[in-house]
Amino acid sequence: MLDKKDFRKFAHQVVDWMADYYEKIEQYPVKSGVRPGEIFSLFPDTPPEEGEPMEIILNDFEEKIIPGITHWQSPDFFAYFPANSSYPSVLAEMLTATLGAQCMVWETSPAAAELEEKMMHWLMYLTGMPSGFEGVIQDTASTATLTSLLTAREQHSRYTINARGFTGNEKFRIYGSEETHSSIEKAVKIAGFGKENLVICRVRNDFSMDTDHLRKNIQNDLRKGYHPLAIVATLGTTGTTSIDPLKEITVIAKEFGLWVHVDAALAGSALILPEYRYMIEGIEDVDTFVFNAHKWLFTNFDCSAYFVKDKEALIRTFEILPEYLKTQTHGKVNDYRDWGIQLGRRFRALKLWFVIRNFGVHKMQEIIRDHIRLAQMIKQKVEDHPAFELLAPVPLNTVCFRYHPANVKQDSLDSINQQLLETLNQTGKVYFTHTRLRGKFTLRFMIGQTYTRQEHVEKAWELITRTAGKLT
Ligand SMILES: *Cc1c(COP(=O)(O)O)cnc(C)c1O
Hints:
CATH topology of the domain at 101-346: Aspartate Aminotransferase, domain 2
Bound molecules: pyridoxal-5'-phosphate
Number of helices: 14
Number of strands: 11
């Protein structure tokens, strides 16, 4: 077992490994190429009876774990969405692990609670959130959305479902769009509404929620005796980063007395740019809002900023007070265990504090602005190229496109593009993922990794066109 002296030695060694990793990250295949079960079979079926030396463990980490890692911090990572880390974030995370503090109530680590409160104020300032909201860090957007729908449920039922369970007469309806994230469906199921009560509204040509269809759905439901409860608006959908018209949605919500939750998991970070604040027009009238600092704000997973208008409703939904958790300060300070699902909580505000201070507002703005500029550059290249086709507008940092050469029949486009995607990823030089838009197999070029710059994006586009050219 490591002792004090050896801890220091290995900690230095690990830090050197970390610095080397980031320096040579572009040499790794971005997407791990291992087969299912390959890593599992490398380990013994039972744990060691006696402790093993750290040298051997670290060596195994390098040899057995790293080949099975997909390198999300590679600047050549263009898949899914960014899940950024950064140097200051890593330093804070090391300290967080060292302190190992539980941040469930103020007394279990006052600095953690108060820094969290302050960081939520900073994020509100940074994103242009109006006053009247309060924030708390959740582990993920999925959890925040569940928290929101549970709060809506309790507030509308006057806290009776928490007390007595569903009577069966509630008939609540939740509204999303065809492009709403799968975490909404999950939350609807977990909160007990039933998946059939998630009403999916059509999207417009730009893949944003069709609010005419939303209104119709609500009116239909009212006629049928349902109880419309909540609308989930998405800023930056996962497929195309389309932006639901928040203002129109809040107008409808007001008219029918509905709760509004905003899922801005990815796009929330773009709000640090004043020119993207148009996305939150109408924000004064929403109930809850979440965005993931752990996606596009250089802060490693997990760190979801969740803002609520009615703190009392949130706390009333989640508060518990067993004898062993009673403190003298309860009610005078923020005891975050009552602001969500988890009791035990990590000290997540520390990494935000390190990141925001060390980058500064201007640098964060500069990088995000650059990511969006690069996406617009790729969009232009797709449009200018005779053999490529743009499949969605590009409001932010993700370009949806496909290879569509003139000589190829419509019905083989899906398989050609699937082949293009696989061939690209197998090179190890880039990692892309796909979605399906109006039935079409669509490649997504997401630009948002902390250290992605123009050279990486240009190299990737060159690889795409060269690889596609060889397919037909
Ligand atoms: C990534 C994403 C989510 C899920 O985020 P988690 O933090 O992993 O739960 C939800 N909604 C949107 C729009 C996303 O982009």
